[in-house]
Specification:
alpha/beta; Rossmann fold; Hypothetical Protein Tm841, Chain: A,domain 3; 2 domains; 10 helices; 13 strands; 38% helix; globular
């Protein structure tokens, strides 16, 4: 399958809704959840619903890993089979070795026209970059033009979210500057953002409700004066809160596109249940 000459590859942390994956024929490399002696491919061997059910009950905490170089090579080779060129877009290299693994796989396919990009993002912030590339490819753009569309979108995307606890980020080593929030008042809800490819603190508020209101305020500030605005939720086993936040944001910001999306198990390992936020793409 091709997308008019240029095939698009991403990884499962983008958590693009399945209908968009199918519509744009995006190839997805599944990252890995290790749970005790078992290994699961993200979104294939384990889905979000069953992941969170087990996370709440299991005394053993899962960890994550990048897919093997062999799996990356297999996905990229499959993408290149019927395409003139391939563009791969992956989560932030500052959060994971996924980008490096994709580059190593590309080196194993020297005969193929493959370009790999670091999105400096994850979740649907990454997803919006992938969609920009996929839509350019669907319009028949060249590999260089598809790359340009993705690179122009990277600075236009962002992610703001709140978590129930920082413990999961701390355990996974993804806490970044939010380390400063550890040891604070237990009833305070941290608001975090993805900044320069890392998870960084924004502020703390008293309740989850106020945290979600503040997430919307911050998104409104970041997208002010920019059009169109595209929005997508980030949520981990909190669909009702995410849906309400997306509806309010869509109305307030007159969003051109709105997507109700979860986070994949390999992201949820590091954020924990109850995480809710918004990804945005503004001006693209």
């Amino acid at each position: 399958m091709t997308v008019r000459g240029v095939a698009i590859v991403t990884d499962s942390t983008a958590y693009l809704p399945k209908d968009l994956v199918q519509q744009y024929q995006v190839h997805v490399v599944p990252n890995v959840v290790n749970w005790g002696t078992q290994t699961y491919r993200d979104g294939i061997d384990i889905q979000s619903t069953e992941f969170f059910e087990r996370l709440r009950k299991d005394a053993v905490q899962p960890t994550t890993a990048v897919a093997s170089i062999g799996e990356f090579r297999e996905v990229y080779a499959r993408a290149a089979e019927d395409a003139q060129a391939v563009v791969g877009i992956h989560l932030s290299a500052k959060l994971s070795g996924t980008f490096s693994a994709a580059e190593q796989a590309r080196a194993l396919l020297p005969e193929q026209q493959i370009k790999i990009l670091d999105s400096s993002a994850t979740a649907m912030a990454l997803g919006f970059v992938v969609l920009a590339a996929a839509r350019a490819a669907a319009e028949g753009k060249s590999q260089a033009e598809v790359v340009a569309a993705a690179e122009a979108t990277i600075p236009a995307v962002g992610l703001v979210f709140t978590v129930e606890t920082l413990e999961y980020l701390r355990r996974g080593g993804r806490i970044g500057g939010a380390q400063a929030f550890l040891g604070g008042l237990l009833d305070m809800k941290p608001i975090l953002e993805l900044r320069d490819g890392r998870v960084e603190p924004v502020e703390r508020v008293r309740t989850k409700r106020k945290a979600l209101d503040r997430v919307l305020e911050i998104i409104a500030e970041k997208t002010a004066g920019k059009s169109p605005v595209r929005l997508a939720t980030l949520h981990a086993a909190a669909p009702q809160e995410a849906g309400a936040l997306l509806a309010a944001a869509k109305q307030r910001l007159n969003a051109a596109e709105s997507i109700l999306s979860e986070v994949s198990p390999t992201v949820a390992v590091h954020t924990g249940p109850g995480t809710v936020g918004l990804a945005y793409c503004a001006g693209r």
